Amino acid sequence: MIHASLVCRGCSGTLYAVSTICAPVAPTPTWEVDHDHTPEACPLRPLLPLEGVAAHVHELPEAAQVLSEPA
User: Fold this and answer.
1) What pLDDT digit, counting tens, does each position of 16-60 carry?
2) Are 31 and 65 in contact (CB under 8 A)?
3) Which of the four, 47, 50, 53, 63, has the lowest number of CB atoms within 10 Å?
């Protein structure tokens, strides 16, 4: 599943979010979130890609620091 468009809080660049579900072994999605095109000047580059298991992309560790909804 590909998540709707997300925006990076650090540079306002577009992020992609992809999840996979390996049911029944792991019914909670595994996420990967990163810049579509990583800008050199993004102050949040060390936090990306965000990866982990969570029911929703906004529940990933450090998601509140990195993700914002599009305006």
Assistant:
1) 889 888 777 768 899 999 998 878 889 999 999 999 999 999 999
2) no
3) 53
At 18, the amino acid letter reads V
Written as six digits, the tokens of 15 are 């992020």
Q: Is the peptide bond before 39 cis (omega within 30 degrees of 0)?
A: no
pTM > 0.90? no
Residue type, 47: L
DSSP state string for 1-26: -BPPPEEETTT--EEEEEEEEETTTE
Q: What's the CA angle centered on 67, arms 52 and 37, to 5 degrees?
A: 90
The DSSP bridge partners found for residue 68 are 7
